[in-house]
Amino acid sequence: MRKISVMVVVLALGAVACSGGGATGRQRNDALPDGGTPSAGSTIPGATPTATPSGGIGSLVAGGGGGTGGAPSPVTGYPIPHLFTAAEDRIGFTSSRIAICMHAPLNLAAVFNVDADDLNVYWRYVNAELGGIYGRKVDMTYADDKYGATPADVRTAYDTCHDRRPFILTGGFGIDQVPQVRTYAEQDHQLYFHNIGREDFTKKYSFSFLPSVETTGTRAAQWVLHAHPGQSIGVVYRDSENWEPGHAKFKAELALHGRGVDADLPVAKNATVYTTQIRTLKNRQVKVVFLWENALSAIEIIKQADQQQYHPQWLIFPFNIITDKLDNAMVDPVPVEGIAMWPAYRPHDTSGTYSAYAGEIRFFERIHAKYSSGPTDDITWMTWLAWREVHKLLLDCGPDCTRNKIVGLLQSGAHKPPFGCLFNFAANGHVGAFAVNVLEAYMAGGNGAWKNLELCKASF
Fold first, then answer.
1. Of 188, 315, 323, 407, which one has the fewest beta carbons inside 10 Å?
2. Rounded Cα distance, 389 and 316, in Å
């Protein structure tokens, strides 16, 4: 479940004010130039925003070792919407606890060698060493959505969380689960923070700190055109209505630049054999392939392509489990590239492209070693960053926090993140991220790993 839990809430936002549950009159991510933000590419050290040159290695920095930037101090002076009723505003927020529940594919826990200690390292640290948040302990629980194997699985996970009456409902990795839970959250007026998902600005109660499916497809196309000009392009994409907008945006962005795809190949949701797709790509001599599928499927596709002596430039979601499983196949003869919503992580390495946020890595590894016996990897790293963001948001909200105040903090831009690329909810009020990172596979100490090529890029 490490991979799963991560895509919840990470990093930060920029600034613009609006009121209510959404951004009136702004229902599209392209309401600002390039669908981005004036601060796209800006980054922050610790808890203090600092504008830096747009993107590039070294543009992502962290405070490095001190919780959330000193003594808690609530943010004031921002407009507070009236999205939640008085009866709904403080559900799960009592004098002694703050309840958070996450739906995620717990059934995959064994695949990723993780347990509750790994997932809850940050909250164990907050509760034990910081006394909680304004004296309230964080009560973090999880519900298994089984990666959306059936709609009933997702419904059961949602109901499990709903019955726990959380202050915040969060969604772990699962592009196919998010739209279903978003509908339930809308019906029940749940404050829902979800991971990457397709856009739906009719929903008032759901918010995402990650680029949307559409934005990810657009950035992937921009990167291909920027980094691999003139090369033939193919797409292997998950045949799912929830993934489709990313596939469509990828092709649309190429078309804006007079380019098309030389192979456009769907794969079934639970496919295990990809011989037909690989043969088609190879026969058409496709040089660059956007692999729009999850990590476990990507492992099989790249492995089977390697067995068929087909080695294009792959562009994928870059999880460490892929480099761990494939090692040399990830770099020989062409290093695999990845579009990511997180900076690269390699355990105990703060050199090279990791040095820009070495302090955060040391902080993470020190606390993880204290509160978990399990190993660190990119999933525990991303989960750590997610909870760092939620912690800072709750601190900014103050001891009298409400759901309406949290929405106001996000939509006004008054909240500043503890780590990462700046966000801006100006375009639509509900999706705040437009920047991505580009990673590249390499061999380190005889094992595959990821390094950063670009950080915090809202266009290429």
1. 188
2. 25
CB-CB neighbours of 214 under 10 Å: 22
In angstroms, the Cα distances linking 225 to 258, 343, 358 are 11, 22, 31
Cα 286 to its chain centre, rounded Å, is 29
Query: Which of 81-95, 134-148, 238-252, 272-286 comes out lowest in average pLDDT?
Result: 134-148
CB atoms within 10 A of CB 369: 13
Looking at the domain covering 214-340, what would its CATH class be? alpha beta
**Which residue bears the tokens 């909870």?**
387
| Residue range 2-211+347-434, CATH number | 3.40.50.2300
For helices 213-227 and 244-256, the axis angle rounded to 10 degrees is 40
Looking at the chain, the domain(s) classified CATH 3.40.50.2300 span 2-211+347-434, 214-340
Q: What is the pLDDT of residues 328-383, one digit of tens each?
A: 999 999 999 999 999 999 999 999 999 999 999 999 999 999 999 888 999 889 98
Instruction: With beta carbons less than 8 A apart as the criterion, state whether 244 and 212 touch.
Output: no
Structure tokens given for 252: 């649309």
Query: Looking at residues 174-200, what average pLDDT do you find?
Result: 94
